Amino acid sequence: MSKTLFEEFNQVSAKAWKQKIQADLKGADYNETLVNSTDEGIDIKPFYHADDHDYEFLLPKSPAWYVTEKLYLENVDITIENAKDVIERGAESLWITIPEADDKKLKFFEALSDDETPLYVEFLVQDLDFFKKLDTILKKQNKTVWLGFDPLHQLASSGNWFKSQKEDFEVFLKTTPLESFENQINIDARLYQNSGAIIIQQLAYALAHLNEYLNILNNSDSTLNSIKVNMVVSQGSNYFFEIAKLKALRLLVNSLASEYDYDIKLHIIAEPSKRNHTIYDYNMNMLRTTTECMSAILGGADWVNNLAYDEVFHKRNEFGERISRNQLLILKQESYFDKVLNPVDGTYYIENLTKELAEKALSIFKTIEAGKGFIHQLFEGKIQKKIKESAEKEQAKVSSGDFTLVGLNKYKNLEDQMSQNLELFPFLKQHQRKTLIQPILERRLAEPLEKERLEKEKTNPSSKSNV
Question: How far apart are CA 448 and CA 467, in angstroms?
Answer without folding.
Answer: 11
